[in-house]
Structures are given as structure tokens and as C-alpha cells.
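Appendix C. Worked example: DoxX family membrane protein
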Amino acid sequence: MEVLMMKRVTTGDVAALAIRTGLGATLFAHGTQKLFGWFGGGGLDAAASGFHGMGYRPGRPMATVAGLCEAAGGAALALGLGTPAGGAAAAGAMGVAAETHAPNGFFNTEGGLEYPALIALSATALVAQGPGRLSLDEATRHVFDRPWMRLAALAAVPPAVAAVVARKHRSLAEDAAEPEGSGSASG
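Step 2, the predicted output written as C-alpha cells:
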């Protein structure tokens, strides 16, 4: 707390806190819907089945990773602790979700990419900007929020999203090539 008192808190710090907590809480809730069925979610079995059906295979591990990225990334953002890693996890998961929704157009009302893309961009902006002074990263003297960590986090997101999306497209192509009636079991 002594560190916070020595530096002047700005409106930018307050804005970062507001964005971090709102975005982080939303992501945390979204991830725990997948993992545990909290907040009206279907839980891991339902998420795994959905992921398998969308081409993210095997479904259970992919749903688990997505849920963990959202829940842990959201918690990290809300607390402002490990902001680069938390933001990258959130941006990656939401980048994949945006690609999944892209065929439906832009607007969320049509099932489009609007919502996940906005979350991905917001998480990316928080990584680039940093958590602000009203954060646990500030209180810990940025031990988990170094400039090189921000750069590494920002650089890691696009290839990670591309790899997951490419894997999905390979799975869907394999499905299309299989003779009808010989579908694989969900995972």
C-alpha cells in the first residue's frame, strides 16, 4: 500500500481499474460456466460436446483450456496481477471465439463476432497499456508485469489463435472426407 501512496493515482488508473474489473469478472463468469456450470452454464460435459461439434477436438481438453483461459485470465485481469499473461489468455480464447462466430456476421444479435472480438481487443489493450496503479501488479512492483512480458504476451496471441483455428479446420475437413455414418466419438 505504501507504493500506492507514493505515486499519484490518475483518472487513467481509475479507468484501467474499471475496465479490468468489468472485463475480468465477465470472463471469469464465462469461463466458470464452461468449467463448473456456474452462473447458469452447462458445465464441462456440455462444453466438451459443443466444442467437439464445432471441430475443436478433442472436445473435453479444448473446452477445459478455453474455460481456464477465460476464468484464470479474467481473474488475473480483475485483480491486475499477471496482467500480460491474463490478458493474453483472455485475448487468445476470445480470438478463437470470434473466428468461430465470424460466419454469422458482425453483430451479436445474429450470433456474430461482435462480443468476443470486443473482449479480445479490450484484453489486448490492457496488456499493452498495463493494469494501472490500482492493481496487484503495482503492489508487487510489477514482478509479473515486465515490459518484455507484455511484448511476449502480445506476440504469442496471433500464432496461438491461428494454430487452434487451423486445428479446427483440419478436424472439420476430416469430417467432410469421412463416409457418412462413420463419425468419430466426441471427446
